[in-house]
Design brief:
Elements (H helix, E strand, L loop, with lengths): L8 E3 L13 H12 L7 E3 L11 H15 L5 E5 L4 H13 L4 E4 L5 H4 L5 H13 L2 E6 L10 H8 L4 E6 L4 H14 L4 E4 L14 E4 L6 H12 L3 H19 L6 H12 L17 H13 L4
Parallel strand pairs: 1-8, 2-3, 3-4, 4-5, 5-6, 6-7, 7-8
Helix pairs in contact: 1-2, 3-5, 8-9, 9-11, 10-11
């Protein structure tokens, strides 16, 4: 199978629930169809942070993948977040995703590493096992520098060299590291697709990438496609204009006390846009309240999205 072409916008959409908290497959299918109707959307990532993937049962994860695969009808690849702790369970999770129709794997670090760090070679083995067990095409996920699960450059290069690794989703959130490590990845692996995931400050990274893999893309795909195009054209003035137009939405969704609140805000925004009927989330996420809903709706109006 040829590598996925992710050179554009790859939204990581939310998972829609019914008002009583069950996965709403009809709503998720409608959301997927809406997103892939936007020219420039090159794939969809489910079961990530924005999609509350770790809050779903294994059975719900599999059925959601099938729902999205059926909805997009082969127009773009469905990529599954792989999040379980151990290398063995992650490989089995990836196999279930592949059997359900996923093409790619967004490989999360083992979450114990966030606090305690990782042993040398462990991330490489995680990626190897996932690809060999499932055949999924891997996306290297670079976590924020503030965590202990942010891979050093040597680890990134070794994962990039492994069979099945086709892209990197970089969210290091340390511009010194971004400006020194991304050029090395680009030079040593010219075919590795470099995707930014800096939802809350995309402008700086937009001129170095092939695309963006962001939860933000699930709410505002149209202007983000514009922003990516401006970055590829090295048109700073246009990129700045799109960034500034979106800034009220960025602030309303992502400039909150916790980045996880962004998932709740994305659902509120999609409801305001008429894409979702319900903004229900699963605990431990909590509703944001009427004030937040009014702020998000006002921001979407300022950005001319409603």
């Amino acid at each position: 199978m040829s590598p996925m072409d992710l050179r554009g916008l790859v939204p990581a959409p939310v998972t829609a629930f019914t008002a009583d908290g069950e996965v709403d497959h009809a709503a998720n299918a409608d959301l997927a169809r809406w997103l892939v109707s936007v020219q420039g959307v090159k794939g969809l990532v489910c079961l990530g942070h924005a999609g509350e993937g770790t809050y779903l049962t294994p059975e719900e994860q599999v059925t959601l993948i099938r729902t999205l695969v059926d909805a997009v009808e082969g127009r773009v690849p469905i990529i599954a977040g792989i999040t379980t702790e151990s290398t063995k369970t992650a490989a089995l999770e990836a196999k279930r995703a592949a059997d359900a129709g996923a093409i790619g794997a967004l490989v999360y670090p083992s979450h114990g590493w966030l606090r305690f760090g990782f042993q040398k070679g462990a991330p490489q083995e995680r990626y190897r096992a996932i690809h060999e067990e499932s055949g999924l095409q891997n996306i290297l996920f670079q976590y924020p520098d503030a965590t202990k699960a942010s891979y050093d450059l040597e680890t990134q290069l070794e994962i990039a060299a492994q069979p099945g690794t086709v892209a990197t989703k970089n969210g290091v959130r340390n511009m010194r590291r971004w400006d020194t490590e991304i050029p090395v990845l680009r030079e040593q692996f010219p075919d590795l697709q470099i995707l930014t995931c800096h939802d809350e400050y995309l402008l700086h990274t937009m001129f170095d990438v092939d695309g963006a893999l962001v939860g933000y893309g699930g709410l505002a795909p149209e202007p983000l496609v514009e922003l990516i195009a401006a970055g590829k054209a090295k048109d700073y003035a246009k990129a700045r204009e799109v960034h500034d137009r979106l800034l009220p939405v960025t602030k309303a969704v992502y400039h909150r006390g916790s980045h996880m609140e962004g998932t709740v805000a994305l659902k509120i925004g999609l409801k305001a846009r008429g894409v979702l009927r319900d903004a229900t989330v699963r605990q431990p996420l909590q509703p944001l309240g009427e004030r937040a809903a009014a702020e998000i709706e006002f921001a979407l109006k300022q950005a001319q999205l409603i």
